[in-house]
Amino acid sequence: MMERTVGELAELVGGRVVGDPSVKIKGVASLREASPGEITFVASDKYLEDLKETRASAAIVSRELPISIPLIVVPNPLLAMAKIMALFWQPPPPHPGISDGAWVSPSARIGKDVSIGPFVYVGDEAVIGDKVALYPGVYVGPRVKIGPESILYPNVVLYEGTVVGKRVVIHAGSVIGADGFGYVKEGQRIVKIPQMGIVEIGDEVEIGANCCIDRATFGRTFIGRGVKMDNLIQIGHNVSIGENTIIVAQVGVSGSCEVGRNVTIAGQVGVADHVKIGDGVQISAKAGISRDIPPGEIVGGIPQMPHRRWLRVASLIFRLPDLKRQLDELVRRVEELSRKSKEDRG
Predict the structure, then answer these.
(1) Is 307 in the active site?
(2) What does CATH list as the number for 4-88?
(3) Contact residues for 89 (Cβ-Cβ < 8 A; gap 6+)
């Protein structure tokens, strides 16, 4: 079992130790679930009472506190916790080598130290980089390229020509490179537009479970370096997503949209086709985006509007029944006054 001292962990995260730096830590846990020998963290002042009751042997905090256990003081406890968790917790490695139950094309190029599980299919001229892990049931189509140290969990599908960068993680059931939704009408008949492009995924991208990223009509659908996608996300054909963007669950991005760098798109947002979203934009949950958004803006609502205005609009929704009754009463009074005025003039 791995052990590190509080002092060693503080050095890892660039923190300052308050208390005994020689205390040994063997794991990580939440405030309420931690046991002796584990380290915990406090991300917000509302959890300070839990810190007083914790059984953890040390804690990561944003400032010095009157507590008996050793503390690691850092500007961002959540970030420090993430780095320490990565040290203590590693996912179990898949079985090394190529399973007898897999099928690998003779023309495929396979790197060193790969893991290819049972019922994996690797198509013609595919290129699998060093230390790639393909869990059972993965489909790798013809001419797919997967960069070193990438992990594809069970039943991931990569259609032909898909390009996956280095250290990419794709979770179970995601489909990359299916045809984009492209059709044209000929009278009453619907004619399919062939989808001739590819999907390209940059380095260090993580794609959640059951996501769909469509291939381009021409050229590529592109997911930039460091993008993090939650589960159940649909990305349409010819979409481009910039580096380090975060997309939360159940978002749908229609075809030919351009999403900038460092954008945050909250859950269940819908983006209409050909919309351009600038760098650093934040979009709140359930928003409907139908127009371009300049860089740095925070928007929400349906239709989209500045986020603060949307909060005011949302607060009024709850008052609409009362406001409607008041309006009806005002209309009745105005009509009565108007009637009396006419009678007086008559």
Answers:
(1) no
(2) 3.40.1390.10
(3) 28
